[in-house]
Amino acid sequence: MTAITSLGGGHGLFATLRAVRRIADDVTAVVTVADDGGSSGRLRRELGQIPPGDLRMALAALSAEDERGKLWEEVLQHRFGGTGALAGHAVGNLIIAGLTSVLGSEVAALDEVGSLLGICGRVLPMSPRPLDIEAEVVGLEDDARVVRPVRGQVAVATTPGQVRRIRLIPEQPPATPDAVEAIMTADMVTLGPGSWFTSVLPHLQVPELVQALRATTAHRVVVLNLSSEPGETAGFSSERHVHMLAQHAPDLKLDTILVDRSTMGGESERGYLERAAATLSAEVIYADVREIEEDGGWTERHDPAKVASVLGEVLSR
Questions:
Q1: pLDDT digits (tens, 9 = 90+) for 118-165
Q2: C-alpha distance from residue 98 to each of 30, 126, 132 (Å)
Q3: Residue 157: closest CA among 205, 199, 204
Q4: Before 170, cis peptide (omega within 30)?
Q5: Which of 119, 121, 95 is nearest to 109 (CA)?
Q6: Which one, of 305, 152, 218, 247, lies nearest residue 7 by Cα?
């Protein structure tokens, strides 16, 4: 049996889970818990629970591919319209919040929803408590050297400045024990793609997760984004993305960095990336993993089938 544990959040983690479920019998998603916007932010503030949105998306990504699984995926992702108290809430967020209140445990609630969806694995929060992200940002003042703190996932993701680094509040939060176990017992662990500072790097600010990533015998893969993001990583090269990993988790070792071939420029750019990867003891793999439109145009999404094929080859080594 092949076990894969994927770390991340949002649409990036959704894409990864859609890929790894094709090659693994057991998939565990370890999900960020710092969302403070939209439906998740409202439930977090009103109930004091972990924000459920990214957890809901991970459950939807792993739902069974039969008719019942597809129905429940659609139900989980459905958002109420109108202007009343429920407007904007995703049904899945309310189900997770309600089950958490009844069962007294977010992990138990997620396992119950996972059973309902027939998923082939588990969805776990990276920490058992809701967290905040605070970023050091430059470019918000006339003097571009001035560093200002920006707090909150939404604020960090939409800042017009450039993020230098992040930290979690409270600092050094505990990890969900089952998430640590999933990293330690996996055959492969993936990190990324996704919003680098708000979905990927937060995992590297949880000490027990970093310790597990250092100690695991799993093959550790980072899937790089297809492009930089406005605000968060505007102007970032692939090399810069890798440097951010090393900066936020010194002494972290990885095995493979997967890069879409179309995102790379000339030999010099590849050389910079490979030298950055070498500081993490990682090999760079260049492959076609971008989704293509029916008219032949490129998208900014990873193709789950292509990613699965490359990761399957890596596993088979």
A1: 898 999 999 999 999 999 999 888 887 899 999 999 999 998 888 999
A2: 21, 20, 23
A3: 199
A4: yes
A5: 95
A6: 218
- In the chain the first and final C-alpha atoms are separated, in Å, by 16
Confidence of residue 287 (pLDDT cuts 50, 70, 90): very high
Nearest to 33 by CA among 173, 131, 136, 165: 131
At 264 the pLDDT is 83
- With beta carbons less than 8 A apart as the criterion, state whether 258 and 310 touch: yes
Structure tokens at 8: 């991340």
Contacts of 2 (CB under 8 A, 6+ apart): 23, 24, 25, 26, 187, 188, 315
Predicted TM-score (pTM) of the model is 0.96
> Tens of pLDDT along 104-124?
999 999 999 999 998 989 999
What are the Cα distances from residue 165, in Å, to 4, 98, 291?
Answer: 28, 35, 30
Q: How confident is the model at residue 230 (pLDDT cuts 50, 70, 90)?
A: confident
Q: Which residue has the tokens 């760079």?
A: 284
pLDDT digits (tens, 9 = 90+) for 192-219: 999 999 999 999 999 999 999 999 999 9
Owner of token pair 């799993």: 218
Q: At what angle do helices 106-117 and 53-62 cross, to 10 degrees?
A: 30
**CB burial readout 138-159, b (16+ within 10 A) else e:** ebeeeeeeeeeebebbebbbeb
Break the chain down into helix, strand, coil percent, rounded to 5. Answer: 45, 20, 35
